[in-house]
Amino acid sequence: MKRRKRDLDRQLQSIIDGDALPAGQVEDPDDVEALRAAIALRAGRPAADLPGDDFLTALHERLREEQQPPTTRRGVSRRALIAAGGVAAAAAAGVAVDRNLLSQSAGKSPSSVAADLAPNEGAWVPVSSVSDVEAAPQRFTTASVVGFVTEQQGSLLAVSGACTHLGCLLKANSPAGRLDCPCHRTSFGFDGRVLFSQLDTAPAPLPRIQARKRAGTVEVFVPGEA
Amino acid sequence: MGDDDSSPGPSPPPSPRPGVGSRLRVVDEDHYSGWDEIYLDNAVRVYRLLYSKVGNRPDAEDLTTEVFLAALGPLRTGASRGEIRAYLATTARTALAGYWRRRLGTEVTVIEVAAAVQFLDDPPSETQAVAKARRVLDTLPDRYRRILELRFLQGLSIKESAREIGVSVTNAKVLQHRALRMAARAEEGGRE
Questions:
Q1: Which of A1, A112, A197, A215 could hold A100 in an S-S bridge, CB 3.0 to 4.6 Å?
Q2: What is the nearest CA distance from B160 to chain A, expressed in angstroms?
Q3: Given CB atoms, is B103 within the 8 Å cutoff of chain A?
């Protein structure tokens, strides 16, 4: 009870200060009401709701950059492209997009950049059959890696199966189309994006693993299994 | 505004209408010529819509970024202005819902698409949010109104506000919570 009030005080103070709202859990309808009123009041300061020119210009630039065809985007990493593709796909599917992932090129949270798991010395290891993967997301384990492989719009997608926060092994939640961490309320998409997280700083997206089809089997490229 | 020229005759040449306070250049009434125009015409509108729902700049900026990046791929620039605004409103609703779910586990504010489209089409003047806050405050008993003015409009600390009103800090907190709840109800009742 005390803690709840302290949380609410903290949130109200951040609204007054104009800071980003601190993460927390709000359940009491009275608290929700109080926050809603506080937001409306704070927005009632003169000219409070006008965006800064710096922000508008930076976002404009960013959108221009995102529109460049890949060949002219030498300065933009493949990872950014993957992220942008993920955003578009998420929007098409009406899924919430992770804000930390989106703000990555604003340089806010470098850890939110999805890395590719590309071992120095690796080998293609069969992990499932094409038909199984087509039917449902498949979990796989090799001597060095745990992961999930899915097929989305005709292409294979494999990601690490360990949460990027503390390494807990993720569980597939197929009906919801996501991977849930059993440790802290955090979920990833099958493409590795963070869908939501209770953590103040969302963990990095899941590393991607190269995958391919070979003679009816699905193979992933993982560190040498010798 | 004020285009009441209804003289008959051959169809008038398309007149480019200047957008409200923006660098907008619309090719014809209902279509944009490309992404730049979509952005220039809608960025401030989308930001203000989201700001009115979260009440702080950093989150409003993140959400605006999210909406435009998400819209960039699937949105056909050949779509009409109405379609584009409807899409932006829908994307904003999804973004806001996700924001609340992640941030507090509950939706404190929501975007209704029809109302949001109206907001984007005809953004309220800068003084409207101020007037709305004023209206809500004016329905409250004196001390309730006072604490909220000091805290939310003038930005005084709880300590300073308590001193100003002449109560203890604890009482100021209680006053603030009660006042906020009453304001929430007043706002609810006054919603168009």
A1: A112
A2: 13
A3: yes
Report yes or no: B154 and A45 within 8 Å, Cβ to Cβ. no
B126-190 CATH choice from 1.10.10.10, 1.20.120.530, 3.30.530.20, 3.30.1050.10: 1.10.10.10
Q: Is A225 on the interface with B (CB under 8 A)?
A: no
d(CA A220, CA A224): 11
Q: Taking CB atoms and an 8 Å limit, are B73 and A87 in contact across chains?
A: yes
Q: What residues contact residue A152 under an 8 Å CB cut-off, 6+ apart?
A: A89, A190, A191
Q: Is A50 on the interface with B (CB under 8 A)?
A: yes
Please tell me if residue A49 touches chain B, with a CB cutoff of 8 Å. Answer: yes
Reduce the DSSP state of residue A221 to 3 states and report it.
strand
pLDDT one-digit tens code per residue, A55-78: 999 999 998 888 776 544 444 444
Instruction: Indicate the residue of A49, A91, A196 with minimum beta-carbon distance to B70.
Output: A91
Q: How far apart are CA B45 and CA A141, in angstroms?
A: 49
* Pairwise CB contact (< 8 Å): B63 & A99: yes
pTM above 0.90, yes or no: no
Kindly determine whether residue A41 and residue B136, on different chains, have CB atoms separated by under 8 Å: yes
Of A33, A66, A89, which is closest to B69 when you measure between CB atoms? Answer: A66
Right CATH for A67-226 from 3.30.70.2210, 2.60.40.1220, 1.10.3720.10, 2.102.10.10? 2.102.10.10
- The domain ranges of chain A are 2-42, 67-226
Interface subset of A 75-134, CB within 8 angstroms of B: 84-85, 87-92, 94-97, 99, 102-103, 106
Amino acid found at B41: D
